[in-house]
Each structure stands twice: as C-alpha cells, then as structure tokens.
Write a structure and sequence with these properties.
Number of strands: 28
Distance between the termini: 44 Å
CATH architecture of the largest domain: 7 Propeller
Family: Belongs to the cycloisomerase 2 family.
Radius of gyration: 21 Å
Helix content: under 10%
Mean pLDDT: 95
Structural class: mainly beta
Strand content: over 45%
Protein name: Lactonase family protein
Strand order of the largest sheet: 3-2-1-28
Keywords: Carbohydrate metabolism, Glucose metabolism
Oligomer: single chain
Shape: globular
Number of helices: 1
Length: 353
C-alpha cells in the first residue's frame, strides 16, 4: 500500500514538472482596479492562463518589453510627466525595480530595446518625440542621450512606436502620417527618410512588423483601418499595397491597434478596436502581398496589444474595455483562429511572453 502511494506521489510530481508552462507578463492602465504589471502561467499545450498575481506596482505600465536575454523588463509609465522604468527579472520570476528615468515627453506609449540590449527607444504620444537611452550592464537606464523631436508648427505629432533593426531605427508617427527612418552614426541617430513610403492622407500609422530579414515591412494604420505593405530595395522601401482590415460587411467606426507576423511569417494578424476583431491575412513570402482570410471576434471590447505564444500555436488578445484576455488557437495550416476562453483582468493593454 505504501509503495503504491509513493508511486502515485512520484507520478504526480513528474506530471507537474512536465506541464509546459510559460510566464506571461501583462501591462495595464491603473486608473481603475489594476495596480501595475501582472503575471500569469500559460500552458502551451492547452492554452490555459492560471495563477494570476501582481508582479509589481507601477503607474500606467501600458507597454512592456524584455531585454534580449530576458533578464530585464522595461515598462513605460504613460503619464503627463512621462517616464520609463527598468526591472530585474529574478530567478523566481518576480520583478525587482531598478530605476526610472524621464522620457522627455508626455504619455509614452511604446518602448523597444535593440538586439545588443544596450539601447532603448521610447515613443511619447502626446509629447510628439522619441527618446533614446543607453542601458547599463546591470539593466539600469541612463537619461536620454538623444531626443528625436517630430513637433512642427502646422502638424501635431503623435509618436506611437519605434523599432531598431541593425543600425536603422524606424519610428512610426501617427500625427505626421509617416514612418521615419533613422540610422546610427557617431553614436547619434541621423534622419535618412521622413517617410519610408507615401501613405494615403489620414492613415495614421500606429505599429508595424518587419520580417526577420528586414526585407518587408507591414504598417497598421489606426485611422483608416488599413495595412500598408512595402519591400526593401537598394534605394529604400517600395510600396506594395494597402488593404482594409475590416470585414466587408462592417459599417461602424473602428480603429486599428496592433500588428504581428506569425512565427513562420506565413500569416499576418492585426487588431481592430470597434469591430473588435483580429484580422488574419495569408502572406506571400516571396512578393510580400497579403490575402485577407478571416475577421475573428476577440470576445471582448477594444483589443489593444496582442501576442503569439513562443510555440506559435496560440494568440492572446488584451481587451482593454471589457477587462479580459482572450486566448485563441492558431490553425498551423490555414493560419485562422478559433476561440478557446478568456480570463479577467482590469484594463489589460500589453502582453509579453
């Protein structure tokens, strides 16, 4: 009897150790019940989200990202006096605050880290500028060494996101209706192009995805509910096409938010706030063109950021206004989504595996 009990206990221990759990951090707005950055355990076999807990208190950590080695986490603090915070990811996956610095602009809404992990770029939405920061070996942020100011006398700039790619920096400005291209030279970023492609007026580029080789870029336009595709050439980027993200039958008001390529880059996904959907495109990997194949309800209200889990089998959506995170299964062959379930969390806006 004792032997059977011991075998049962041993089996349960082995089973629990083999559960394929992955840590998910969630950035939120804290003007309601939320207190900062939360974490869940995500089961990459079933898609279950469990063990919700507060990882750290922080004011309006509306966008979060890792260092390349995942030893550090960085969060914007989307307030009038904008700042960005650095945290150490401890061995037990708790977050320890390191430091916080000014972003030199109001309402920062995005932060990205370069591949070397020694630079950060923050997009200040209301401030209309991008602040660049060096990162110390211990993960701490330095004060901005450069600020890229997009404000003009005639156009209201709304800096929305930026990404490093080798020595290039791409910066999306919704207000200026363009994605800018900067290049690193003598430890400063110099303007290469104020618009990598011409966008239709009032498009409002918000976020963008680059292919791994940097040869294609896909820009999601908040105001026109479209995605614009372009191909890298020796002279810059060449326009491919602009496609609507909404279902053909949708008649209401909607605004795009986030965009991501699938792990194999065969499919492209975008979020629609208003239609409250994820749009799915099949991607031609040779020529870069897209074919819309699905508009899937997010089973919530106002989808902001979404993410694909490390296995590439699941897509998770942060629904800000309905206070929930929806989980979808990705069909590996077709790229289409099927809804699994949702969990509650107050004002989720950014998901990070």
């Amino acid at each position: 009897m004792k032997l059977k009990l011991l075998l049962l206990i041993f089996t349960l221990i082995l089973f629990n150790c083999s559960i394929p759990n992955t840590l998910l951090f969630v950035g939120t707005y804290t003007n309601g019940d939320s207190e900062g950055i939360y974490q869940f355990q995500f089961n990459s076999e079933t898609g279950a989200l469990t063990e919700k807990k507060l990882a750290t208190t922080s004011k309006n950590p509306s966008f979060i990202t890792y260092s390349p080695d995942k030893n550090y986490l960085y969060a914007v603090n989307e307030n009038e006096n904008g700042s960005v915070s650095a945290f150490k990811v401890e061995d037990n996956k708790t977050l320890t605050f390191i430091n916080k610095v000014s972003t030199q602009g109001a309402h920062p809404c995005h932060v990205a880290i370069n591949a070397q992990g020694d630079k950060a770029v923050v997009s200040n939405y209301t401030g209309g500028n991008f602040s660049l920061h060096n990162i110390k070996n211990d993960g701490a942020l330095n004060e901005a060494f450069q600020v890229l100011d997009h404000k003009t006398d005639s156009i209201v700039s709304h800096a929305h996101s930026a990404q490093f790619f080798n020595d290039d920096l791409y910066a999306s400005d919704l207000g200026r209706n363009a994605v800018f291209n900067y290049r690193l030279a003598n430890n400063k970023y110099e303007l290469i192009s104020p618009s990598i492609v011409n966008l239709e007026s009032n498009s409002g580029p918000r976020h963008f995805s680059l292919t791994k080789d940097g040869n294609f870029i896909y820009m999601i336009n908040e105001l026109s509910s479209t995605i614009t595709s372009a191909k890298k050439t020796e002279k810059g980027f060449e326009f491919i096409e602009t496609l609507l993200t909404l279902d053909d039958d949708f008649k209401g008001i909607s605004y795009c938010a986030d965009i991501h390529l699938s792990k194999d880059e065969q499919f492209l996904y975008g979020s629609n706030r208003g239609e409250n959907s994820i749009v799915v495109f099949r991607r031609d990997t040779v020529f870069g063109k897209l074919n819309k194949i699905q508009n899937m309800s997010v089973h919530g209200n106002w989808p902001r950021n979404f993410t694909i889990d490390p296995t590439g089998k699941f897509l998770l959506v942060a629904n800000q206004k309905s206070n929930n995170i929806s989980v979808f299964k990705i069909d590996k062959i077709s790229g289409t989504l099927s809804f699994l379930h949702a969990v509650e969390l107050s004002s989720p806006v950014c998901l990070l595996f």
